[in-house]
């Protein structure tokens, strides 16, 4: 990771204002996801990944450990920081975290435009296209 990037695993209770700001900008303002869908009440139980560039929060993701796998989602990078490796850093941290916890797989619900991005890490498509928040998605899985 670049010297001016840092990535932390944080708790919702400690960082909810920062995480909310990033997700509101990306999902609610940019992608037009309704607040009712975005704020599903599950954040307090989730693991949150938070990326900083020059100490400014610019990206996040959340995960749940379910039985022996990780469900990764809500991956968001502020528009002006895309194509700088932030998404890659988030995925690599999630993979490392899953492996350290001896999980068997990571599951994601990927927006269709991002499928090739996830394939670079070994994720495979496991479903047909479906709409989530009016955005085309496909389920993907990475086995360890």
Structural overview:
The protein has 144 residues and is of the alpha+beta class. The protein has a domain at 5-103: Gcn5-related N-acetyltransferase (GNAT) (Aminopeptidase, 3-Layer(aba) Sandwich), CATH 3.40.630.30. Helix content is 30%, strand content 38%. It has helices spanning 12-30, 35-38, 86-100, 115-119, and strands spanning 5-10, 47-53, 56-66, 69-77, 105-111, 124-125, 130-132, 135-143. Strands 1, 2, 3, 4, 5, 6, 7 and 8 form an 8-stranded mixed sheet that branches. Strand 2 (47-53) and strand 3 (56-66) form a beta hairpin. The relative contact order is 0.16. The model has no long low-confidence stretch (mean pLDDT 95).
* Backbone CA Rg: 14 Å
Q: What share of the residues does DSSP label as strand, in percent?
A: 35-45%
Enter the CATH topology name of the domain at 5-103.
Aminopeptidase
- Class by helix and strand content? alpha+beta
The total of beta strands comes to 8
Sheet with the most strands?
A: 8 strands, mixed
CATH superfamily of the domain at 5-103: Gcn5-related N-acetyltransferase (GNAT)
Mass-distribution shape: globular
Distance, first to last CA: 23 Å
Name the CATH class of the domain at 5-103. Answer: Alpha Beta
Q: Architecture of the domain at 5-103 in CATH?
A: 3-Layer(aba) Sandwich
Low-confidence blocks of residues: none
